[in-house]
Specification:
This protein is α+β, with helices and mostly antiparallel strands. About 25% of the residues lie in helices and about 35% in strands. The strands form 3 sheets. Strands 6-7-4-10-11 form a 5-stranded antiparallel β-sheet, with no helix packed on it. α1 runs antiparallel to α3. It is globular, with a radius of gyration of 21 Å. The two termini are about 15 Å apart.
Amino acid sequence: ASDWSSDVCSSDLSGASRALLIAVALLALEGHVTIAPGEVTSGASTRFTVRVPTERPVPTVKLRLEFPEGLGAPRFLTKPGWTYELEKDAAGKVVAVTWSGGRIGADEFDEFVFTARAPEAAGTLFFKAYQTYASGEVVGWVNTEGEDGPAPRIVVQDSVTAAPTVKEAAGAPPSDAPRGGRWMGGVALALSAVALALGLRRR
């Protein structure tokens, strides 16, 4: 009976390990430049976080972010090791920012912060992001449709109907991230719970 129990536990743990590996692989597929929170209230001044993962074996060394029409004048949080340069239109409005000078290593991510006022009109705002690697490769996150190079986006809700969520206020990934990102995160959590349960069972 002891040998049988040992074999079962070993099999369970082996399955749990495979489940965790699958979960990690699924989460790795999510990597792209995003902005949180994904939903904001119209007319509200909001703190935004731009999350930038490195998806190449060389570091990320620059990020350019273009702001959509309707977004209020942004202000930027200084970031040690990085500098930022603003681009303005003829009227003096900030239309883009470029962060450079730092490095985001392979298999790492970093975050850049700015505040801005959401427009009064409800709708979806798309940002264009250009990620430059140390190799010179530039990856554009600019597409407003499909899941190939998706542009960072936020959904502006009417102030009368908007209901802020705790997760997004805490800097969770945007709620309007590609559909694959949502279910992959759920799968990862579920598989992690299974692994924990099997580990406790062995004890």
